[in-house]
Amino acid sequence: MKAFFGERIIEGSPVREDGVMILFLVEKLKDLQAYFEKEETYVDVILQSLPPSFDQFIVNYNMNGLEKSLHELINILVQYEEMIEKSAPLVLVGDA
Could you name the domain of life of the organism this protein comes from (predicted)? Predict the structure, then answer.
């Protein structure tokens, strides 16, 4: 439980890797029979673990009342991360 609730996705680290770790922790909790009845709890913890660059995603997720499974949530987080990376402004550094 401590590892699950303490999981934080660091800004710039791949969401896919952190998502896999979170899914592993959820499965481990289920194996230990120390799990939550409602999947919404897991979703809430995952959303709270996201870095600030995902704030808009969290707002949209909550405002639109989306209900995704954990695997679906991780997949759309990965897609959102890819979208952020593609739309990030490029900074060119040249000789001064």
Answer: Eukaryota
With 0.90 as the threshold, say if the pTM is over it. no
Residue 44 forms part of a structural domain: yes
Average pLDDT of the residues of the chain: 82
Say which residue the tokens 């029979």 belong to. Answer: 33
Residue 86 lies in a domain: no
In terms of Cα–Cα distance, which of 38, 83, 39 is closest to 57? 83
Which of 82, 15, 72, 13 lies closest to 43 in space, CA to CA? 72
17-28 residue pLDDT tens: 888 888 888 888
Q: Is residue 33 part of a domain?
A: yes
Which range has the worst mean pLDDT, 6-10, 18-22, 70-74, 79-83? 6-10
Could you tell me the residue range of the domain that residue 22 belongs to?
Answer: 2-80
